[in-house]
Every structure is written in structure tokens, then in C-alpha cells.
Write a structure and sequence with these properties.
The structure is a single chain. By secondary structure, this protein is of the alpha+beta class. It is built from eight helices and nine strands. A nine-stranded mixed beta sheet has the order 1-2-3-9-8-7-6-5-4, with helices on both faces.
Length: 265
């Protein structure tokens, strides 16, 4: 049950709803040591994916480098949740992933990523429904919290100011000087409790799409999670949570790949 709760955090973190093809054995994860890592298209096209994940414990005294990292991460808090809720403290989980999908850039559109039937195929273990206002709600069951999210899609020339910080980072660090062909912005909120305990406060997922190779798409995710509680130390604590998130990448890729193939072919 703990695994289910942690894997839904993984789903939240990497929920661009577009997954690279191939078996888990063929995927070659590359753990990067900095959030500002450069995208290595050659390695990604050869079947690797790059990732970085960082955890900052709430209330912990930070050194200069950790403070610098936290300030960079909180630039993604476009709704100012962290600083405006002065009576709450949050664990911060920041991640960045990059991978290549075996589908052309034209496959990805606002209609595609918002299509309820497609989303349900990518998340077969969860009950996904559409709210009247166009947002989505996910009922997870068991030890994973229910939550809601809204999803917006953007195309050049990217005039919404909420995209400025993300665009600055990807064009300076990830793919220098090149703007993506599409961006999605996903806001996850209204998380339920598990065993009467608060879970996530919210998460923000920015996703950039680039054409790369022949009929392939490079996808880059930057995700900020603000978390109320992590697993207790007696079952492994935050280290266990992060290990399971990383271990779940290939599992999630394989589990949802069939939906991409079915809709692309």
C-alpha cells in the first residue's frame, strides 16, 4: 500500500501523458548531479533517459548551496503557495527528466493531452474523470491520495508570464537557444488524506516538447512538489520514497507505452 502511495507521487511528477517506447530492459537511466544538466540528445535517441531529483526536508537548516537550490526550485511556484501559507511548512521535491518518444511532434497537441480516453489509457489503475469546469479528478484508492488537476497547453510565442521562468531555464540550460514547439502546464491540487494524514499540498508540472530525430519527440519535464508528509523513518522515510520514485520510472514507462502506440499507429 505504501508503494501505491509513492507511485502516485511518481505519476504526478512525470504526468506529461506521453511516454517513450521500448521495454524496461532497454531503457538506460542516467542520473544527473545537477538540476541544470544539459540534454544529451544522442544518448536519449539511443534509448536512455536523463533525470535529476532532489528532496529538501521541511524545517531543516540549509547550507549555502541548498539555499541556492531551494530558491531556484521555488521559482516554479507560480501560484506562490510556499510563501503565502505562512502557517505551514512543506517538504520540497524537485525533479527534471528528459526522454524521447517514438512519435512525431505533430502527435502531441492540446486535444491529445486533454483527451479523457487517452488519459485513462495512460493511467489504467486509476479512476480519471472530467469536472464541469474542464479540470480533472483522479481517484486512486488504497493508500494513495485522490487529487484534482488542471492542464493548459501553449504554443509559440508563449506570452503567458507564468511560463517565463521555465522558458528561461530550458533555453539557457536544457536546450540552449531553442524554444519548444509546445508547452503544457499542469497544476495538481486538492489532495486527499491517507490514514488521516495530509499528503501533498500541490505540484506544478511544466513539460516542453521538441522535434528530434526522425518522427521522434524530445520531452522535458520540470516538476515542483510541495509535500506535507513523507513515509515515516521506520519504513525507510524520504530515502525510500525517492528510491521508489526512481525505480518506478521504467515501470511507469512500460505500463503506459501501449496507450501511446495505440493512438499513434
Amino acid at each position: 500500500m505504501i508503494r501505491s502511495a509513492i507511485l502516485i507521487l511518481f505519476v504526478i511528477t512525470f504526468s506529461s501523458f506521453s511516454i517513450p517506447s521500448g521495454s524496461s530492459d532497454a531503457l538506460k537511466p542516467i542520473e544527473e548531479q545537477s538540476f541544470n544538466f544539459k540534454i544529451d540528445k544522442k544518448k536519449l535517441l539511443a534509448g536512455s533517459y536523463q533525470y535529476y531529483i532532489d528532496f529538501i526536508k521541511k524545517g531543516e537548516k540549509l547550507n549555502a548551496d541548498e539555499k541556492k537550490n531551494l530558491n531556484q526550485y521555488l521559482g516554479y511556484d507560480i501560484y506562490n503557495i510556499h510563501d503565502s501559507n505562512v502557517n505551514e511548512q512543506y517538504h520540497v521535491i524537485m525533479s527534471k527528466t528528459a526522454y524521447v518518444v517514438d512519435a512525431s511532434i505533430d502527435f502531441f497537441s492540446s486535444d491529445r493531452v486533454r483527451d479523457l480516453s487517452f488519459i485513462r489509457k495512460t493511467l489504467p489503475d486509476y479512476d480519471v474523470n472530467l469536472n464541469d469546469d474542464g479540470s480533472y479528478r483522479i481517484k486512486c484508492g488504497g493508500m494513495a491520495p485522490d487529487f484534482e488537476y488542471d492542464l493548459k497547453t501553449y504554443y509559440p510565442s508563449y506570452k503567458d508570464s507564468k511560463l517565463n521562468y521555465f522558458l528561461k531555464n530550458i533555453t539557457n540550460n536544457d536546450v540552449p537557444g531553442v524554444s519548444p514547439k509546445m508547452i503544457t502546464l499542469q497544476h495538481n491540487y486538492n489532495f486527499g488524506t491517507v490514514l488521516w494524514q495530509k499528503t501533498n499540498k500541490m505540484s506544478i508540472v511544466f513539460c516542453a516538447y521538441y522535434p528530434v530525430g526522425e518522427n521522434k519527440t524530445l520531452i522535458i519535464n520540470h516538476t515542483l512538489n510541495l509535500v506535507h508528509n513523507v513515509p515515516p523513518n521506520f519504513i525507510g522515510g524520504a530515502d525510500m520514497m525517492l528510491d521508489m520514485i526512481v525505480d518506478g520510472i521504467s515501470e511507469y514507462i512500460v505500463a503506459t507505452n501501449s496507450a501511446v502506440k495505440e493512438n499513434y499507429n
